[in-house]
Automatic annotation (TrEMBL):
Transmembrane segments: none annotated. Pfam families: AAA_31 (PF13614). PANTHER family: SEPTUM SITE-DETERMINING PROTEIN MIND HOMOLOG, CHLOROPLASTIC-RELATED, SLR0110 PROTEIN. Signal peptide: none annotated. It comes from the Bacteria. The lineage of its organism: Bacteria, Bacillati, Bacillota, Bacilli, Bacillales. This is AAA family ATPase.
Length: 290
């Protein structure tokens, strides 16, 4: 028993030293559930003692703060003037804290400020955040906008949300094809949101339509979600026993076990060869040839 506790503690320590994982929450169309997913997944991970930062990637009309009922003093726009001298401590001042422990990098307060956010801003912010958090959860803009592509390329996993709606499904398929062209398809995981809704397309049809296995289904619970969004309390916080919250805990659990697997594999890897060792080994190889 003591051994298990020690191992768990060591795994947690190792996890703190690992670079954070970035999850880009994407969808082809708007209104699919990216913001609901970003907020609830972030809180579900924070409940597991993870250090989580939620980034609102909808730089014109972001509503992440609203859906978590927090009022930001600063937004990503304010980091722009500080960019050259910014370090992880100054950046921390620009984040908003949620009661769950999740930190949020808010989107600009007005749509006209969105153009101040460029890829070089994102590059700097990403570099500083990725070493401070276990997870960066990005609520990206719908479709394949330039700035969303930055997050997509840098992400460790892409969560592509769809619904069973015909148009959404067609666009999701095109988005998947584009991810393939961009060399990003390996990272994609498809999630069917509101999957219990009655539709011409059935859940069983989805793998065939999208030519993808390993699809995660999230149930439709409109009342719970609407109420949670209106009061700004993520349902995983106060309705943890519902099917919807359970689906989110499951996703968080899968992410966590994947992260632990990576940490264990990295720890088991033999230490990389020193220059001297490499020369010695090359010498041995050369001798065995002659
Ligand atoms: N699992 C769900 N069950 C029922 N309604 C949902 C679910 N997820 C999201 N919604 C609803 O879908 C709508 C869009 O969600 P939102 O997260 O704002 O989408 P997006 O950020 O992709 O534009 C909201 O009205 C929300 O209440
Ligand atoms: Mg949204």
């Amino acid at each position: 028993m003591k051994n298990e506790i020690r191992q768990a503690r060591e795994a947690k320590e190792a996890s703190k030293n690992k670079k954070g994982d970035m999850i880009a929450i994407c969808s082809a169309n708007g209104g699919i559930g990216r913001t609901v997913m970003s907020t609830n997944l972030a809180v579900a991970l924070a409940k597991n003692d993870m250090r989580v930062c939620n980034i609102d990637g909808n730089f014109q009309f972001g509503d992440l703060c609203l859906s978590m009922d927090v009022r930001p003093t600063f937004t990503i726009k304010d980091t722009v003037e500080e960019l050259d001298q910014m370090d992880e401590y100054t950046l921390a001042n620009f984040l908003v804290s949620h009661s769950s422990g999740v930190k949020i990098l808010a989107s600009p307060e007005r749509p006209e400020y969105a153009e101040l956010v460029t890829t070089s801003v994102l590059e700097k912010v990403y570099k500083l955040l990725v070493n401070q958090f276990d997870y960066l959860i990005v609520d990206t803009e719908a479709g394949l906008q330039d700035l969303s592509l930055f997050f997509i390329e840098k992400s460790d996993e892409i969560f592509l949300l769809t619904t069973l709606d015909m148009v959404v499904m067609r666009n999701t398929k095109m988005m998947l094809e584009t991810f393939d062209i961009l060399g990003q398809k390996e990272k994609v995981r498809v999630l069917v949101n509101k999957s219990s809704v009655d539709s011409v397309i059935k859940t069983a049809d989805v793998p065939g339509i999208l030519e993808t296995e390993n699809i995660f289904h999230i149930p439709n619970q409109p009342q719970l979600v609407t109420q949670s969004m209106n009061v700004g309390v993520p349902f995983v916080s106060n309705h943890g026993k519902t099917d919807l919250a359970k689906a989110y805990f499951k996703i968080a659990e899968q992410l966590l076990s994947k992260r632990e697997d990576v940490i264990v594999t990295e720890e088991k890897k033999p230490p990389s060869n020193s220059i001297l060792q490499s020369i010695f080994q090359k010498g041995k190889a050369a001798r065995s040839i002659f």
